Every structure is written in structure tokens, then in C-alpha cells.
Amino acid sequence: MPKNSKVTQREHSSEHVTESVADLLAHEEPVDYKRSVLNVTGETWDKQKDAEDELEAENRPAWNSKLQYILAQIGYSVGLGNVWRFPYLCQKNGGGAYLVPYLVLLIIIGLPLFFLELAVGQRIRRGSIGVWNYICPRLGGIGYASCLVCFFVGLYYNVIIGWSIFYFFKSFQYPLPWSECPIVKNGTVAVVETECEKSSATTYFWYRETLDISNSISESGGLNWKMTLCLLVAWSLVGLAMIKGIQSSGKVMYFSSLFPYVVLVCFLVRGLLLRGAVDGIMHMFTPKLDKMLDPQVWREAATQVFFALGLGFGGVIAFSSYNKQDNNCHFDATLVSFINFFTSVLATLVVFAVLGFKANIMNEKCVVENAEKILGYLNTNVLSHDLIPPHVNFSHLTAKDYNEMYRVIMTVKEGHFKELGLDACLLEDELNKSVQGTGLAFIAFTEAMTHFPASPFWSVMFFLMLINLGLGSMIGTMSGITTPIIDTFKVRKEVFTVGCCIFAFLVGLIFVQRSGNYFVTMFDDYSATLPLTVVVILENIAVAWIYGTKKFMQELTEMLGFRPYQFYYYAWKYVSPICMAVLMTASIIQLGVSPPGYSAWIREEAAEKFLFYPTWAMAILISLIILASLPLPLVFILRQFHLVSDGSNALSVTYKKGRMMKDISNLEDNDETRFILSKVPSETPSPMPTHRSYLGPGSNSPMEMSNAPNGRYGSGYLLASTPESEL
After folding, report:
1. pLDDT tens-digit profile of 243-266?
2. Which residues bind Na(+) (predicted)?
3. Distance between CA atoms of residues 156 and 596, nearest Å
4. Which of 84, 248, 287, 390 has the fewest other C-beta atoms within 10 Å?
């Protein structure tokens, strides 16, 4: 725009604007309507070049390549849950049969909502705060709620990375420090540590050596300095990866996203060569079809789909906002969704191959221990030698021989069998011991690796994989905070990122005290589930019912160059909102039915015990849910009653390389009306031909939709493909 133009002069003048926008535009350069969004003549313009021009003009960072962007989305969506949550749910909910409800819900809920978030981020090119302010100002609290949830999740998620860092450095020794119980001196006698003897070496190392855990959440016990140092290292890694935005985090993704697949494939090959691996995999994929009729299975599958793709956090929107506007985000959504699914299946194969090996080891140990008991009973004449089948050789006793001997003794000694204290030692029982989360990664898996040849190497690889999985997810989670805040409030990227990491580390000290693991459990169970479900439902409603599904589909057609499948229209408008509402209701019922509590490790008993949260912990728990959800009603009320400006009555026009854009200024209501319709028909700038483009059945022309309560400004009159203003 020329420096001496009338509009530019008005920007530096305090005089009241009396001219119509049409008068001001008369002094400006003519508009190239071929390239304008208002073009309805069917003439073509170079969409890619125009998108690149806008990108350069806005000076917004961009991905170096499509591969870097895809790896970032994969690194964000594929996280620790794929390794230690999905296999557990698969085992618990019917084995191979669980894959059916998961895949169905991935297609009807996960994929449409993931595509929706990618599309709005790419279309509006802002973080979550700016996107939802643009689409529906009254629901602008969605973006702030997403930021809060990201902060809560990031607080405890980085603690898990800290635990992995601790195990990673402890893996550089042979034998592994959790392979045997420690020996302590009791006077002149050396004895095995009692707590370890009652549990196991890996369990002892996790609870005592790593966490040094207290008996309850009420016993703080002070800071665990080892975990505090590891947490500092974890936040330093995240800060270094995030400090330059996608310029630094994008490069990290090349390693953090690809390395876990290398490790998983190596573990799968090694696992399949282990004795008993096939037993674990067969147990895993043996379908229990009756489970498919259980509503609880579908609820847990829907929850896993929801969290596996990172919906509602804002990270997906943040990453896609750095794309060019003609990027095929539909392809991206489909690719990332199914890579996520196949990664979960791959991780499940690895986990159950290793757990099958572990189950065989533990079953053999059980057979040996119980065979010694039987020999003792034979030597003391408690049992007769006639009960032992003639082919049984105690020096080479197999599980099959022991089971045969066990059934004979149980039949003959039916009245006194319990007094013998013999175990069945069934492989199926070992395989049915379901473990998840930290129990899988830091106890079950670590125990299995102690039996691997070259166990330190595999331990280093495993925990380096966990660090990278966690780091990829943390970069996406932190982007859900930094991108919208930097976009909205224009703070310095480096300063805000460093400050955010320091503040999070200081708040995160609550998780590295001796009772910290109980707070991790609390945050994991309650800080995100319900608030995020509400956030995603409102995202869906904002786009499909307030902004308008037809309008959104039309904009996607313009942006992508093809019309998305009609499936998405019905999924966004009906299927996804209904399914998410059912999921939210089920989650609320589950919270009400399940008493809020946690599994505490009791040192004296060397066992876990379920405890209820004390009153003060319940207050924290409820505060987490309320605080994460508070921006939603707060922003709605403030903007509904005009207590804060939402920019909906502030329109001006700027020209940027021939395209008409929205901008925020302080025009009065009558000035806005004058711009759109003009008080005098002759004053209205009318670049549009007398005919209009066909938008589909039941659609209105842009001018006919000007009074509809849709869009960023409460108007369906679309003037821009990218918001020029800062939202």
C-alpha cells in the first residue's frame, strides 16, 4: 500500500473516520479479482505461489520439508501409551478381538477429528487460541483450556522421561543393578534385603532404589535428589529442542521419531528368537469374541483412540499451522492415524513376545520350587512314592510332567491338598498377569531383559527408545502451549520457552519427592481425561454447527483442490459429536463409580495396597478438573456479555498482493455495516458478477449468508483465507 494513501494517513490521524470504506478504496490500487477469494468467474490463479507469498509476507516459520512435518506428527501421536497402554488393553479386552472396536472407532471418531484439527490449523495458521477465537469467539476458551491441559500433562509426562533417563544411565553395567537382590549385613551375618526378598529384584529396584517411595501420599518424605537431577536433565532436553521453535524441534524429530521404530524392530526380531515368545503372541491374538459385546471394551477403545492421536491438546493444530495452505492434510491425517495404529500393533507384538519369554522363565522357576517341596514331602513320608508317575525324572522335570504329578496328588490328597502349599504352575496364569504403565516398563520388561544375552545392550536400547518416545510427545505437548501463546501475545519465543521450562521444572518438584509417584498417578488419571473430552466435543460443535459444516467443506475444497469425502460431512455433524458425548457420559459415570484412590507401596509388607485419597488430595484432584475446564465458561460469559472485546464488530480491509483480507481495528457497528452492505447502494464496492458460484444443495451465496451467525466475526461473508490480524 502506498505510504501516501488515504488509508495510511488515517492510521496516523486522530480524526474521526467519516468516509465509507468504498471511498477509501477508491484511492487504492485496483484489486486483482482473479486471485481474490471473491472470484466466482471460474478463472484460475496460481494457488501455490499465492500461498507461498502469504507465508513470506506473514514471516511465519515453516517446516523444512513434508517429511519433517510428518515425522513431527508421528512423534507427537506415537508415545509411551502405544508401548505400555495399548498392549495391556489388548490383553484385558479380548486379545485380537479388541482390534476390531479399536479400528472401527479410529475410523469413525479418531480420523475425522484428527483431520478436523489438521485442517483448521492449516487453514487459519494460528495456534489453538487463535484458531478457536477465529472460528467462534464465544468458544475461544477452548484454546486456553487446551493450553492448561498441556501444561498439566507436560508436568508429569516429563517426570516419566526423567525415570527413563535414570534407568538409561544405570544400564551401563553388568550385571544390571536390578537383576539381583542386594545383600545387607546384619551384624556378622549377610542376609538378603527383606523388602526385596518378599517381592522381587526388579520391583525392589523400582520402588526403593529409584523412587525411594513413601507408604502413602500423605508422607512427603522430602525430595529424591536423584530423580530431581533427572527431571532437570529432562526439562533441559525439552528446552533445547523447543528453543528455536520448529527450526530446532523439527531436526530433533528426525531421530526421536525414527529411532523407536529401529528399536521395536530389533526387539521383535530378538524376541521371536526367545524361547516362549510364540506362546506370548498366541495368547495375545487369541480372540475372545464375547468381549466385543461388552460396552466397557468400547469405552476403553474410544478413550485410547482419543489420547493416542493427541486430540484436543493443541499440538496437532500447532504443527499443522506451519504448513502451506495447499498441503494435503487429508492424506496426512490418514497416514498418521494408521501409522499410529500399526505402531501400537508392532509394540504389542514386541511386548508379548518378551512377556511370553518371561512367563516361561517364571513358570520353570515355579516348577523347580514346587518340585523341591514334593521331594521334601516324599523324604518325610508325607507323600507316598506311589503317587509319582514312573516316567517322571526330578533331575529333568518338565512343566508337563509336573502338571501330571500335580493333578495326581490333588486327586489323592483332596482333603489335605491345601496344606501342602503346592502351586499349579500354569503358563496361562503367568500370561494372564496383566501389567501396564510403569509396571510394564520398569518392572516386567526390565525383569525379562535380565535374562537376555548381552542384557545391558538391550536395556540401553529400550530406555533410549522410551526417552525418544517421551521427547517426541513432549515437543508436541509444549508446542500446544508455546505456539498459541506466542501467536496471541507476541512474546519472544526463546524467552517464553526457557521461562516455561523453568517454571514447569519448579512446579514439577512435587513429582520427585518420595510420594511423587502418587501425584503422577493423580494427574494421569484426572487432569486431562474429562476436560479434554469436553474440549474436543466443543471443537466439533464449533466447526460443524456454529461455523457450518457446508461452509467448512467448501473452504476445504478451495484449500485442498478437491472435495473431501461426504463421510466427513456426516461424521463431523452427527457421528463424532454423539460418540464423544457418549464417551464423556461414560467417563463421568466411571469417575463416580470408581472410588478415587491409588496403589500405594507398603514397605513393611513389600506389596501394593489400594488407598483412598485424603481430603486435601481430593481437593487438589477436583481443582485440577475445574481449573482445566474453567476457561470454557469464563471466556463464553465474558464475550457473551461484552465484558471483553472479541473483535466481532471490528472489521477493516487491507490489500495484500491483490487478496482481500480481514483485519482487526476499532470501527463502529455502523461502519462495519456500511462496509458490507453500504448505506447507499451506489457506494458499495461491488467486484462480484451478477451470478454466484454453486456451493451445493441448500447452500447460500456469501452475500446471502452475511447475517448468519457463523465464522470468526459472526458473519458468513468470507473475505479471507488467512486472518491478517493477530487474534
Report:
1. 877 767 777 888 888 899 999 999
2. 75, 78, 82, 340, 469, 473
3. 18
4. 390
Q: Is 14 annotated as a binding residue?
A: no
- Structure-block grid coordinates of residue 187: 551384624
187 is in an annotated binding site: no
Q: What's the pLDDT tens digit per position in 171-220? A: 999 889 988 888 888 777 888 888 888 888 898 999 999 999 999 999 88
Q: Are the C-beta atoms of 462 and 170 separated by less than 8 Å?
A: no
Q: Is 462 exposed, middle or buried (0-12, 13-18, 19+ CB in 10 A)?
A: buried
What integer pLDDT is reported at residue 679 of this predicted model?
38
Which residues is 608 bridged to in the sheet? 601
Q: Which pTM value belongs to this model?
A: 0.78
Q: Is 467 helix (H, G, I), strand (E, B) or coil?
A: helix
700 is in an annotated binding site: no
Task: Tell me the CA distances in angstroms from 625 to 217, 367, 530, one per residue in order.
Answer: 19, 49, 7
Q: What is the largest CA-CA distance in the chain?
A: 114
- 336: nearest Cα among 304, 309, 307, 318: 309
Q: Is 652 helix (H, G, I), strand (E, B) or coil?
A: strand
Residues 369 and 423: their CA atoms lie apart, in Å, by 9
More confident residue, 626 or 422: 626
Average pLDDT over residues 279-300: 82
Burial of 255 (0-12, 13-18, 19+ CB in 10 A): middle
Calpha distance 170→163 (Å, rounded): 11
Is 222 labelled a binding residue? no
Cis peptide before 564 (omega within 30 of 0): no
- Beta carbons of 82 and 347 less than 8 angstroms apart: yes
What residues pair up with 611 in beta bridges, in sequence order? 598
Is 470 within 8 Å of 160 (Cβ atoms)? yes
Q: What is the mean pLDDT of residues 280-289?
A: 80
Q: Are 161 and 471 in contact (CB under 8 A)?
A: yes
Residue 685 has pLDDT above 50, yes or no: no
- Grid cell for residue 271: 524376541
- Residue 83: its H or E element: helix 80-84
Q: For 552-585, what is each residue's pLDDT tens digit? A: 999 999 998 999 999 999 999 999 999 999 988 9
Q: How far apart are CA 163 and CA 445, in angstroms?
A: 14
313-322 core/surface letters (b: 16 or more CB in 10 A; e: else): bbbbbbbbbb
Q: Cell numbers for 444, please give them.
A: 516386567
Residues in CB range of 383: below 8 A, 6 or more apart: 374, 377, 409, 413, 420
- Three cell numbers, residue 659: 487478496
Q: What is the model's pLDDT at position 145?
A: 93
C-alpha grid cell, residue 548? 457450518
Q: How far apart are CA 402 and CA 132, in angstroms?
A: 65
Q: What is the pLDDT of residue 647?
A: 47
- Cβ count within 10 A of residue 387: 15
What is the DSSP secondary structure assignment for residue 564, as one 8-state letter? P
Q: Is 473 annotated as a binding residue?
A: yes
Residue 235, C-alpha cell as written in the block: 526439562
**Residue 309 near residue 536 (C-beta atoms within 8 A):** no
User: Residue 149 — pLDDT band, cuts 50, 70, 90?
Assistant: very high
CB-based contact 426:407 (threshold 8 Å): no
CA torsion, ordered 630, 635, 636, 638, to nearest 10 deg:
120
Contact 314/475 with Cβ under 8 angstroms? no
